[in-house]
Amino acid sequence: MNQETERQSETRHSMSPYQPVANHWDEAVRVPGMPRRHWRRLMAAVGRMGAKQFDRCWRTGQQLIQSNGITYNVYGDPQGKERPWPLDPIPLVIEEREWLGIERAIVQRATLLNAMLAELYGPQRLVHERLIPPALVYGNPGFLRPCFGITPPRGAYLHFYAADLGRSPDGRWWVIADRTQAPSGIGYALENRLVSARTLPDVFMKCEVRPLTRFLEVARDALLALAPGNHATPRIVLLTPGPHNETYFEHSYLARHWGFPLVEGADLTVRENRVFLKTLAGLEPVDLILRRQDDSYCDPLELRGDSLLGVPGLLQAVRSGTVAVANAIGSGLMETAANMAFLPGLCRRLLGEELLLPSVATWWCGQEEPRRYVLDRLEELVIKPAFPRFGLHPKFPSRLTAAERALLAREIEAHPERYAAQEQIAFSTAPVWTDRGVEARHVGLRVFAAWDGSSYTVLPGGLTRAASESSALLVSLQLGGGSKDTWVQGTAEDDGGSPVWAARAPVDVRRSMGDLPSRLADNLFWLGRYAERVETVVRLVRSLLPALSGEEDFGQAASLESALWMMVGFRYLPREILGSSLAEQRRQMERVLSGIVYDPSRSAGLGWNLNQVRRVAWQLKERLSGDTWRVLQALELEFSRPAPVNPEHRYMAQMNLLDRAIDTLSAFAGLLMENTTRGPGWRFLDIGRRIERGVQMVELLRHGIADAPPDMEAVLAMLLQTADSSITYRARYLTTMRADLVLDLLLADEANPRSVAFQAVALFEHLEKLPMRGDARRLPPEQRLAWRALTAVRLAPIEQLAEPDSGGRMPELDKLLESVKGDLLDLSEALTAKYLSHVAPSRLMASS
Question: What is the pTM (predicted TM-score) of this model?
């Protein structure tokens, strides 16, 4: 078979099996084998690539998803949280002319819903004129009475809006749902674009896809212009429910992209009707909160009293005009599906226009005539909760049994105001890449709009979602669906005017980093500690493993006896093992070391500590560079692989794994040292590393020297190897191993980055540069602790401490090391109490 024949064969394999679903609009083809005009370039390019090359390109895309840490949390998922983002490599293509119509309709719809919010939280003429039933307002849990009468800056209730669209078999787009609280998906749409553009760069360029960057710029700068007082450098924070939220990745992504601090409710406090961010330097005022959590959780004083996610007193601060919230609290009122039945008349009343993009036919069962219609045609409709609640999903009566339909009908008759019915749309289909080739899946499109200061700007594309199976009627990521990039053909139009931020005052240069939230400083501190703990365990295990094979290092035999002594000292093995047979000692040592490397359930093992690194780093994702995050991802991936089954291969596999881990950890430390601004965040991260390294070195010296090991020389060699100081020692002394010389190098040498003295010096220097609190005339407690540890090491009589007593032990050395360890741990507690404790007392108690 020649190359041309092979290419044609691959093309047929990749595209010719694709069959659209009968009686559904297909986005890509008109009839089998006949692509739509705006899909021709994409399909031709994919066809030329062939299935094998396309699959190779997509593996690159999957690696990008993994290295960038793009995840999505599915509630109740047996696979656990942080599931890799389900992206399909074949984008959805929309022609330019069709998109312009969608764009105008979305701008109109966002404007309409914003006007409705202004009416319903203001004069309420719509209710008085019966243009909307009172029960849809006052009976809606989304109508927050404490928000009545609050007018946001410039009348913008909706700063971000999203509409879920579906296409019917006749090719018309319909709005399925409105998202007005904190619409998610913008960050994922941007990551979809990044992955697809890098996976198919040539195809992307040929298809002339509109960029997404201007939308982000407009949205960010419009938010800056909203800040009360309109000063030059407003402080904007992005409020997240926390790392367990399903779209936490997007929260951290947007915070990093826009440069807004990512905060949780506990990071904010209200004092005298003003919102403040708790930072290392004290309380810093907040001008605008971009919230990513539901309305009712925002303020436990006036909304949900059981909320642990909100900020007590936030609504009063909003009323006072000292802070703005985007989207405005209470905007979830517009998310009820029942509203759609009244939008055409409301559009004519409020905007004097016909609704450009119709909603899917909707009936609210709270009205008698629509309810009779719904009950008569139950099998033809989709039944939705009128007021969205967590855990409630649409029901398809056509798929229910007769008994289940009868039960549903009784529920509707008993509580008609709780239900809305919609026409069942036969969603369009699009090609999806599967293990079986290219198959048709139902798709829906989420389109986003952002307030730009006077109107709305629409993201040119959006988040396309695909059903999990060809027979699935619901297009939902929570139910196992996937996503696609959305390619809008054409070029971006010139806005023709000055942006809202053009007239802002000049910005003063700011180099202070003292506004770091306490919670982030705490996470950085523990990231440093856990990362250093991982490195210490890796180095220790790597120095112990040769004892199993009799390897030699610098001429010193790796003694099994000395390795067992160290493992007993670190409580990896019970002391009774020292009296066992040689075979039993080797078996137990091999079992424990393998468990440290491969068993994630061991609290002292690598897997457990790496999980802690991952947990803390996930809460810092917006603060870590892409390179740093990829290094952490690579480290986690290395240790997620199972242990080799063949015992003969296990030793070399472990050594290779540990060698690679040292390289990766060194890259992580290097990125942090070279690329991180020397602010409080970096200092707390390095403080965590220095405290942990000091504690671990003290423990190594206690069990390696002070406890009088039976084979001192072999243990000293292992200590130097674990501390990465063997070359320095040999270059200085060229002699046999001596305890006093090793002790001087690892305890008192301030030039050795691994010594205890080096850590104490670095800690004291860091502490001097932290934001000062309390009486400046006295040395703070944390500095006194660091100075005491450093002084103890500097004054230590090394030669005397290294002299063993009659029993071979070094009690004075052990006493000194125990004292230094206690100072380092007390220093950690003092720092936590002074800077890192971000749990504030109840505002109810504080106000009394």
Answer: 0.83
